[in-house]
Amino acid sequence: MKKKRVLISVSDKTGIVEFAKKISALDFEIVSTGGTYNVLKDSGISVINISDVTGFPECLDGRVKTLHPKIHAGLLAVRDSNEHMKQIEELDVELIDLVVVNLYPFKQTILKENVKLEEAIENIDIGGPTMLRAAAKNYKYVSVVIDPSDYDKVIEEIKSNGKVSEKTNFYLAAKVFNHTAHYDTLIANYLRDKANIEKYPYTISMTFEKIQDMRYGENPHQKAAFYKEVSNNEGMLTGIEQLHGKELSFNNINDTHGALELLKEYTEPTVVACKHSNPCGVASADNIYDAYMKAYNSDPVSIFGGIVTANRTIDKATAEEINKIFLEIVLAPDFTDDALEILKKKKNIRLLKLKNIERKQDEKCYDIKKVSGGILIQDIDNLTLNESELKVVTERKPTDKEMKDLLFTWNIVKFTKSNGIAIGKDKQSVGIGPGQVNRIWAAKQAIEHGINQLGEDFVKGAVLASDAFFPFSDCVEEAAKAGITAIIQPGGSIRDEDSIKECNKHGIAMVFTGIRHFRH
Hints:
By secondary structure, the chain is an alpha/beta fold. The protein folds into 3 domains: 4-194, 3-Layer(aba) Sandwich (Rossmann fold), CATH 3.40.50; 235-353, Cytidine Deaminase, domain 2 (3-Layer(aba) Sandwich), CATH 3.40.140.20; 385-512, AICAR transformylase, duplication domain (Cytidine Deaminase, domain 2, 3-Layer(aba) Sandwich), CATH 3.40.140. It contains 19 helices and 21 strands. Helix 14 links the parallel strand 12 (329-332) and strand 13.
């Protein structure tokens, strides 16, 4: 009786020598290629070189090794077909019962700094995916293993039953096609970028890698998982290092994303406190302690149980203040040893470290929203303002201080759910009105919050930002009552003149940005 045959050709050689020894002991003969052949042979394992099977040498710098009928006929033959078996015998082809293959490291190659196109091209595997797909297509008769974590399962089934079950083969085959789809998508997206093909082509493929399963999703009855893009994740939420606390939940990650993206808009020492993906306290200062205190005092109620992000190292003094309240998460580029010692005393707080926290998402990335039956894809909203782009539309111009506060507050409203209004002063959020069905409600909410938390005197002289234009003059009227002295908004309403006249009536400066920041 002929021995069963296994073909082994792996780039990732984790555990392959041990696997080969075990499969050889189960009376399989091993066929191998190139570097894998040498590793197995040097380990004292009996192994047949692929060229001895094909009768043809490996050639073209290893580009052609397994692309041969004697390999693929051995993989694709239907064992229950008399005609297939007759041809196999006539062609003197040996059947292959097990394939163990993983692919050239294309992902690892393109993630290297300054990698050249030629190197990336050479790491596009051709023979590997072809063998994998052939074996997976013929799963009823051939076992195919792409993941070293499946080695033990395959060995155990062969030990127990003399073969791998069809159920397991089907599972392994499905895993293969999932993997080759991921691999091909990486290649397609890399080459699309290099070829400058349009960002929104006729068809689009995306691929992500799982970071973790979640305990549940947005609600306990929803299953969920966290995936990352295949890219340099430094400065991104997928690049965090958790220093302390329980596993992150779905809502933790989603809320932290909202806070982190707003934080990236600022270069000065800044703290952003967030609740349910909306900012509730934002402040910049000369140091991170003062920034935290200003952000906390903006809304000491809503910050409870929220997310705090900072763009500077958390020091001892800041940690002592943070430790006075319950927070779900504190995220920063680093923590001093003293700060960590203080914060780790609380069991439930999650401490996250993120290097290069100022790095924004690549403009090549997509913003994706799931809708019924499909997805909506758009560019990342990375647009930022500077003073030269603003158009003053009122009789009074903003003072230098007002202009700085307008730009500061505009960033806040950019990351506030629409309809959104944000009020700011002295680089501190005063009141935020998020997600209302009309703009006047959002304005009243922001003003009322500012008065209740910081007092009428503090609100006077503050500035107001709106994520979209004013359809009526009512928001300006409310701002005037509160003593707000400057407003920033996109403009573009057919009734802009009503708001401009109302500003002029009260001596309020108003500037148009010409752009809006809806956040739905």
